[in-house]
Amino acid sequence: MSATAVRFHDQHVDEMGPSFRDDTIAGLGRERKRLSPKYFYDERGSRLFEAICRQPEYYLTRTEESILASAAEEIAAIVGPESLLVELGSGASRKVRLLLEAVRPRRYLGIDISRDFLLESTRHLAADYPWLEVHAAWGDFSRRLRLPSGVEGRRVVAFFPGSSIGNFAPPEAEAFLAGLRRALPAGSGVLIGVDLIKDRRTLEAAYNDAAGVTAAFNLNLLERMRRELGAEIEPAAFRHLAYYHEAASRIEMHLVSRQAQLVRVAGRPFPFAAGETLHTENSCKYSVAGFQALAQRAGYRPTALWTDRRALFSIHYLAL
Ligand code: AVI
């Protein structure tokens, strides 16, 4: 393979599930309207998410990056150079850069739902790390994951940063981790970033940045419906809402209808009352002990933990 080549597996690495169209119709048809947050990530949404990560209020990214940078040698000792490093939801493949020099894995596989964005990011990665064999596979890793053929490693370390696990409800997170465990060979492990429970002000500010990037990210879902499904829906007739639901330890994001209105998707009418919401995301927050207990129920042994001084964020190594 040439120095900057990416071996791209242009195949779904998930099991094909319902489409954006089917899920939108089903989600808008529910008594409490909702849609999976995975649909945020078309190309524009992926770019907006990268911009969210740079907002001063969104402490998650910079805190996780500072933990990774200071723990890189310890992480390297656990991961080892022979592992295949698989990044789930690799996005801009930025965080893994903090580990690559220390770990020096022979092979890296990025998996992301946004195909073009994935290709662009992994190409940059391959150019910057000529000694690394870079693979990219396109798919929805939240469904049952199959590693593409040709990337089998003796040992796999799945890198799942960013607290993306928080976008599953806790029972789904447990099922997802249990499914991932079944897809990994013996001796493998999961290196996972998990956002921690903290004061409401810090949490709510992170999802209501002053520059309005999170609002644009949320509203992009409606623009995507227009672009891809020809939906008759006016994004300006909705507003962004994000708040901390303390009893459930989660941030909820919604799109609130500013007025009574009728939207149409695929010719079907969906009425919204004034103030009615489309629930677009949950972002669950954990205590360290709460997350470790969940990981144990999913069949892992939590063997290492790193946090920052203020205990804003945690990174766990879960051994199989
Ligand atoms: C990807 N995921 C972990 C982000 C989160 O914080 O739940 C997505 C996001 N939603 C709004 N801001 C960021």
UniProtKB/TrEMBL annotation:
GO terms for molecular function: methyltransferase activity. It comes from the Bacteria. The keyword Nucleus does not apply. GO terms for biological process: methylation. Residues 20-318 form the Histidine-specific methyltransferase SAM-dependent domain. Coiled coil: none annotated. InterPro entries: EgtD, EgtD_Methyltrsf_superfamily, MeTrfase_dom, MeTrfase_EgtD-like, SAM-dependent_MTases_sf. Pfam families: Methyltransf_33. Keywords: Methyltransferase, Transferase. The keyword Transferase applies. This is Dimethylhistidine N-methyltransferase. It comes from Halomonas stenophila.
